[in-house]
Amino acid sequence: MQPPAGRNGLAVAAMVLGLTGLLTSILVIGGLLGVIGLITGIFALRTAKRTGIGRGASLTGVVTSFIAIAVSVLAALFLTWYANQTQQCYRPDSFRQYQQCVHQQLTSD
To answer: Is the full-model pTM beyond 0.85?
Structure first.
């Protein structure tokens, strides 16, 4: 079934996936949405080149998806670094002890 004339459904899907991925990229799941959005955006750009419809939405999807992937990778690296730096603090008796331990671990370097 063809989309209605004047629409590029892949472009809209890529844009929605890219924006959703960007909004959830701090939670790392945005990276997965970004990969799907990037692939969809590339296909949407091909369709836009052929039909002349949806280039802006396709580009928005590709760019936001790429940024979502980058932010997710950075968030994962930061979370890994943070977990490594504070691994001695994971069994405190209280949240206050946890805060003190984390502060000590992060300022000791």
So the answer is: no
Q: Which of 68, 69, 18 is nearest to 40 (CA)?
A: 18
**Tokens encoding 50:** 């052929």
Q: Give whole-number Cα distances, 72 to 7, 29, 46, in Å.
A: 30, 7, 26
**Percentage, residues of the chain above pLDDT 90:** 62
Given a contact cutoff of 8 angstroms between Cβ atoms, the answer to whether 31 and 18 are in contact is no
Provide the pLDDT confidence category of residue 40 given band limits of 50, 70 and 90. very high
CB atoms within 10 A of CB 3: 15
pLDDT recorded at residue 97: 87
* Cα 69 to chain centroid, rounded: 5
Q: Judge whether 30 and 21 are in contact, CB under 8 Å.
A: yes
